[in-house]
Structures are given as C-alpha cells and as structure tokens.
Design goal:
CATH class of the largest domain: Alpha Beta
Structural class: alpha/beta
Number of helices: 18
Strand content: 15-25%
Number of domains: 3
Radius of gyration: 23 Å
Shape: globular
CATH superfamily of the largest domain: Mur-like, catalytic domain
Distance between the termini: 62 Å
Length: 475
C-alpha cells in the first residue's frame, strides 16, 4: 500500500473517530458574543444563521465600531455597546468570547459562577468541523510555521484552509461552508482559554517564553493556557514538541497524544533533528533527510519552525520532494526579521513582529554585530533583564521609543550607548547618523505597537517607508 493510500485510510479512520463530537443545538438559544472585532462579527453571523437569538457585547462606543458591526443590527443581531451588561450575560444560554476579551472580565466571571456555558470561537467552530485540524501554538513562530505547512500542502496537492489567529477566524470555515481536506490553524493562548472539547489531529508547541504578562497573573498561568491545546488529545492524535525548550520538556509527561520531537543537533528516535545543514526525519521505521539552505529564514528559531512544519507534513503524507521544494522556495513573512534594504554597506531589518523579549533575543542571535537596535512600544509586562548580555555583545547603539522607553532605559542603559526619542521617524534618523559601513539597523521592539500604531504590521511598514525615503535622499 503506497504512502498516499495509507494517508487516505488514516484520514478516513480519523474522521470516523471524530463522529463522537456531537453537533451543537443552537436554534432559539440566547447566544451572546463578547467582542466585536473580525472574530466577533463572524461568530455573530454564524450563530444567527444557526437560528440563535444573538446579542453582541462590545466595550467600545458605537462610534468606534466598524461599518460591518453596524450592519449586524439589520440582520436582527442586537448590539450592546460601551459596556458589558451583567444582566445580559446572566440571561444568556451560551457566551462565545473573542480572543481579546479576558475571562476575568467581571460580567464573564458572574456568568461563569451562574453556570452559563462560556466558550471561545475556536471551540464553537470545532463543534461544526469534520476535517482534521493541525493546530500550531507557541510564544513565537506560529504564523511562519502555519504558512510553511500551507506551502508544503500546496506543493503536495493537498487542499487546506489556513486560519485561526493568523487572520481568518476558524468560524469562517464553517460559515462559508469550505470543503478543504485539512485545517491549518494558528492558535493563541487567549483562544485556548475557552475550549472544552477542541481536539486537533496534530498539535504543535513551538516554544514557551515570557509574554502577555499584562494579561496573565503569572508565567505559569500563561504556560497552562498554552498546554490546553493537548487537553483532549489521545493516542490517535499527535503532538509535535520542541525538545530544545525546557518548559516544554516539563509538559511532555502529561501529554496523552502520540509525541514526536524536533531538536537542534541532538538525534531523536521519533521526530526530526538538524545537523550539518541537513534535517533528519525519523518516524520509528525509517529515516528521511532534507537539505537546508534557505537564506530567507535566519536563526535557530526559524530552524525550529521548519522542523515542526516538516514533521506535520510527513504525518499527513506529503512526499519528500514536495516538502523539499516548499522549504527552498519559502520566502518568509513580512515584519519577521525581514531583510529589506542595504545601502552604503548598511543592512536594514524589519522585525516589527518581535513584540516580546524572546523574539528580540532570537533576532540578535541570528545577526552579526555591530547592530543598531530600535526598540520600545507598549509594555506587555516583560522582564528586559535577559536582553543585557546580548546587547552588550552585539548592540553598539540602542534607540528607545514609546510608552516603555523609560522602563527599558532604566534596565538597559548600562549595556551600551542608549538614546531616547519621541517618534519612529526620529529613531530612524538617529540610526542613520550612527550607522557605519558593515553595521546592521534592526527594528525589534520587544513591545506591542498599540501605543503609536494600530498593529505591528503598520509599525513595520512605517519603518520600511522611513528607511527607504532617507536612503533615497542619501543616495
């Protein structure tokens, strides 16, 4: 029996296994959607289509809501803006929470104490999905990994829906009646807080680092939220784990799924490891190797992303030659250690997606000194102390901006020559003044963008535009 047939049989067996997940009866239920971003809008539409009596609650004022939200009213969906009304929460049969809304919100806590069912959007979607889900979580690298898996699947002729935290909510898969063979989903800790039966066919945990401590009371709580991705898996499902990560190693004994590992330069009996520019995949019955020479994906963190994607793809029956092709052709994603300009022998990297300390560490680890680092933004409760040795080793000038700049300055000022500026434009101009041939200018903020920009993407685009404009003037 060839690999394709074996994979097809395996998928059919797994779909039969999924039939114990019962469809959720929503007709005439009083359903409350909390949060009206992209996910909340799609969730409201889905619930309405299923016959629920839908109310949507949003803390923002009506004037701040998008035109798409305002149109929900014409469909018979009630909108409650400016506050989360306790009585509405208590009178609901079901509450579906968007990722940006903490479960500690007072009205949600009151509803939970009253016995109201509270779930996340990915849980709602899962109850109506009948194809295998590949779910990827971790502090960093999620979007790169799901996109690489998607590229491998395309090269292999497999149909997949790419969604989740990456941009398209999972509920849209059901709402728009997609019919792909697999779902590839980026999953955040926020989404995992509200799951009950969510059970991916393949779960991937890339890494664990301090992040979102402005939302979680402790690092342990954050890890516990991430670990929920394995909560319902058994030996018919798979967990792909980073064997280089000490926190993930601690979780491993409690995971009931069939486990495979990815590791850097240490052989694994079931999984994949890297050595001398080759990847070696071993599933317990034989070994397959892949060459690795993609210049677009720098650093050990991207090596981990590639290894995880290869293991997931092999489990889904993707042929070696298609995996190799996709690895070689993958260009990486914008705002993730993105090399975009070189002028007068000075390199410029946009790493705006580096919204936590560990991401900045990975970027500095991947680049050669001397580096001029532009950092700062909205603080997420992270400890900047761990940056000190890397900054001392590689950063000749540190330029800080945003709400967190004073806090960061107090921690990092003795590490290297440090400047404070008010705007990104000032930061870019100062980096040009300090840069010499052979230097690298890196935007890697270690903070979110929401003090000055709507998103990390907007911040990254602004950085690239400022650099390009100044470079053209100099040239």
């Amino acid at each position: 029996m060839d690999t394709h047939i074996q994979n097809l049989v395996s998928s059919i067996k797994y779909l039969v296994h999924l039939k114990d997940v019962k469809d959720m009866e929503l007709l005439n239920k009083k359903a409350l959607v909390v949060g009206l971003g992209t996910t909340g809008i799609a969730t409201s539409l889905f619930l309405k289509e299923k016959g629920a009596m839908v109310t949507a609650s949003e803390i923002r004022s009506e004037e701040e809501l998008s035109p798409a939200v305002q149109k929900l009213g014409s469909l018979g969906i009630k909108i409650e803006a400016e506050e989360h009304r306790r009585e509405t929460f208590l009178n609901s049969d079901l509450i579906v929470v968007s990722p940006g809304v903490p479960l500690e919100t007072p009205s949600l806590k009151a509803a939970a104490e009253a016995g109201v069912e509270i779930i996340s959007e990915i849980e709602l979607a899962y109850r109506h999905i009948q194809v295998p889900i590949i779910a990827v979580t971790g502090t960093n690298g999620k979007t790169t990994t799901v996109n690489l898996i998607d590229e491998i699947f395309k090269a292999s002729g497999k149909r997949a829906f790419l969604g989740g935290n990456v941009g398209t909510p999972l509920i849209e898969y059901v709402l728009k009646q997609h019919s792909e063979d697999y779902i590839i989903a980026e999953i955040s800790s926020f989404q995992l807080e509200g799951i009950q039966g969510f059970k991916p066919y393949i779960s991937i945990l890339l890494n664990l680092h301090h992040d979102h401590l402005d939302r979680y009371s402790s690092y342990e709580d954050y890890i516990a939220a991430k670990a929920r991705i394995f909560m319902n898996q058994g030996n018919k499902e798979y967990a792909i784990l980073n064997a280089d990560d000490p926190e993930i190693k601690k979780l491993s004994p409690s995971i009931n799924a069939s486990t495979l590992y990815f590791n850097y330069e240490q052989e694994v009996s079931c999984g994949i490891y890297y050595k001398n520019h080759l990847l070696y995949f071993n599933n317990g019955t034989g070994q397959t190797s892949f060459t690795l020479h993609n210049p677009h994906l720098k650093g050990i963190h991207n090596l981990h992303n590639i290894m995880a994607a290869v293991v997931a793809s092999k489990l889904c029956g993707c042929p070696k030659e298609n995996i190799q092709q996709a690895i070689e052709n993958f260009k990486g994603l914008p705002h993730r250690l993105e090399f975009f300009r070189e002028s007068h022998d000075i390199k410029f990297y946009n790493d705006s997606k580096a919204t936590n300390v560990s991401s900045v560490l990975r970027a500095l680890e991947a680049l050669d000194p001397p580096v001029i680092l532009i950092a700062g933004g909205k603080d997420k409760g992270c400890d900047y102390q761990s940056l000190i040795p890397f900054i001392k080793e590689k950063v000749k000038n540190l330029i800080l901006l945003g709400e967190a700049k004073e806090k960061m300055y107090q921690v990092l000022k003795s590490s290297t020559s440090t400047s404070l500026v008010e705007t990104l434009e000032e930061a870019v101009k100062l980096s040009f003044e300090k840069a010499l041939p052979g230097d690298t200018v890196l935007l890697s903020p270690a903070c979110s963008s929401f003090d000055m920009f709507k998103s990390y993407g907007e911040r990254g685009k602004a950085f690239k535009t400022l650099v390009n404009n100044l470079t053209e003037k100099i040239n």
